[in-house]
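Carbohydrate ABC transporter permease, Pseudonocardia yunnanensis. Tokens?
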Amino acid sequence: MSTRVRRAVWHAVALAILVVLLYPVAWTIGASFKPSTDIVGSIELFPAEPTGANYARAAEGIAGVSVWTFFRNSVVLAGLAVLGTVASSAMAGYAFARLRFRGRGLMFTMMIGTLLLPFHVMIIPQYIIFQRAGLIDTFVPLLIGKFLATEAFFVFLIVQFMRTLPKELDEAATIDGCGHLRLFWNVILPLSRPALITVSIFTFIWTWNDFLGPLLYLNSPENYPLPIALQAFIDQTTTSDYGAMIAMSLLALVPVLLFFLAFQRYLVEGVATSGVKG
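Tokens:
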């Protein structure tokens, strides 16, 4: 088989896989412009007579709460989660990667060990703690762990990246009179930008799409983020409003897509360089 034929076969297979992967996206876009009664029964990819009624109903919100309230709650949760995770993980990563202190290896091993602990094991004890503290139906249970470096995967990612930075930087900065705070802020942190942006992307997407956490701790509709609001379109009446739910789903994808496109060029660099050195 000639090189030209192999390339043609390869591109044909790649295009076929691309069509399969993009079909659900195309169907969702088309369904958002269909009447709700045609979404389940119709097999057409795009409607013969598009309608924007689904987006109008999605914009109205649920239970008297505007859709923009749900967007605001999701933005606040995702933004504070990114801020807390990046700040706490960077400081913990710097301590494990650049400092020498008693018990560092044991503490690092214990931190990595928490990755093996299922989240579901901690649901009941955490809920009891927050309930007795009077923090149910607030954002605190969803955010407090982000500011305490409880995301072991992100700490590990930053540690591995910081270990690739030359030790000579620390020595030169120390000779120039830098303490640990200035060394961390002025030298290590700027050089760790790819890893920090990688952490930001994953944290933003995971928090934006989180359903279980808000379902457990939030009771008031005015505090709901978008994932809970999407679920509320089902069974809010005797007939589920699939059209409005799909329309809001597409609207909810826009911030995630924009955030990813803005920083995706750092993603591969951050993940790739974080595993170079053990």
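The radius of gyration is 24 Å.
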